[in-house]
Amino acid sequence: MKKQSKKLKNASERTKSRFLIDISFVLFVALFLVMIIYLCVIGNTNRIALFDNSYNNRQELQYKNVTRGTIYSADGEVLAETKIDESGNEIRFYPYGSTFAHAVGYSTNGRMGIEDDANYYLMHSGADLMERVNNGIDNKKDPGYDVISTLDVDLQKICDDYLGSYNGAVIVTEAKTGKILVMLSHPDFNPGSIREDWESITSTSSNSQLLNRATQGLYPPGSTFKIITALEYYREHPDSWRRYSYVCNGSIIHNDYRISCIYQTVHSDVDLKSSFARSCNSSFVNIGLSLDTEKWGSTLNDLYFNKKLPTDLLSGTSSAYIGTGSTDYDIMQTSIGQGKTVMTPLHLNMITQAIANGGVMMKPYMIEKIVDHKGNVIVNYDPVSAGNVISKDEADFLTELMTAVVEGGTGKALFNDNYTCAGKTGTAEFAQDINESHAWFTAFAPVEDPEICVTIIIEKAGTGVEYAVPLAKKIFDSYFEVE
């Protein structure tokens, strides 16, 4: 009996051990499968980021097998393509030279612009298996995917020609979609000779040619910031803002701080609309001193100051600080877009576009779609909303003020019978000489059904009235085909 009991016990232990081994095996296989699935999901989800990683040697393999795709404008003009030079070497050719330098970018000595954003697709091919076999037999590379951008050649050239030797930036977007029609930054560079010019471009004496001023340039916004000051006043006085009045004597003094209107112009009796239209500094300093600083700080937060903009574009962070700790001097300066306040042209354009769009801010983008060498669409990029940053009533209020700027204020040079326009001029002073100021203008048209938004800054040119408004007129006239 003892032997039989011992045999049964041993058999039971072997069965238990086999069961534990089987369970361990199943768990190991399950864990292995989960890991494989996880890696596949992660690899597929992040395939673009993984491919673009500088440590990924697969890029070199792609360069050997795929000819980098072509980048086109919205109307089919070639903006960047791969060609073979006289020595049989591949070169990246940019037909418009420096005109699209920051928007299209480059793919040598690093990458920027669309060349960087769409690198994965430009270096992958849509050729089928038979095409790849035949290309291999013929010792040819497979064609990379092509990129159709949102950029408008005619408008970009108008802006490039106008800026000339001036530094600055222009950005033009579709109000309802966020499509970027123009992205221009000066000084620029020739992406076709970036390798040869790299040392001089990146030297300490260079003028920041690689900096995309349209998205990364941080400037005092000057009087264009009165859009935000006026918005806060409306939020605090939604039913009484039309009763606002002020007597401008050409300057305002508060606690020994003095701020003057441009050229010390005496605007006399003004209400809120005329203060905005005529860009009265004294009146807006008076408004700023009356505002609730905590509420004003909340409004700045709503409009994406002091935080990342809702865009995939490489952009700077605008800053404006108003709160319980703000001094009277800080408030006076911030009211008119001076002092420590800085903005990117992209940010101002996005706010302008939100006003034009009834309060809805759209995420700006430059790529319309990705197509293969046969024209088949691989990826479509649809408009994406960043949400309502202001209400419809607030947008209507700001539209009324900005329309007054064009109808009889500082932007009246834009007033015409062909299209309506709403905008705001700005002159950002940072030197004693007014002619050294940055010239700003931001606007949209037509007022009744906005199509495009234009934002311009020209560095050290003078006033926005004299230098930025004329360029806006050229842009709107071209877009609306006005002779």
Content of β-strand: 15-25%
Q: Could you give the distance between the termini?
A: 114 Å
Number of strands: 19
Q: Could you say which overall geometry the principal axes of the C-alpha atoms support? A: globular
What structural class results from the helix and strand content? alpha+beta
Strand order of the largest sheet: 4-3-2-6-14-15
Query: How many DSSP H or I helices?
Result: 17
Mean pLDDT: 91
Task: Report on this structure.
Helix content is 39%, strand content 18%. The protein has helices at residues 2-45, 47-52, 58-65, 101-104, 113-117, 119-122, 129-137, 153-163, 194-201, 226-236, 272-277, 281-290, 293-302, 328-335, 345-356, 392-408, 464-479, and strands spanning 66-67, 71-72, 78-84, 90-93, 142-143, 146-149, 168-174, 180-186, 246-248, 251-254, 257-260, 268-270, 360-362, 367-371, 377-380, 385-388, 422-428, 438-445, 452-458. Strand 2 and strand 3 (78-84) form a beta hairpin. The longest helix is centred in the first third of the chain and has 44 residues, at 2-45. The termini are far apart.
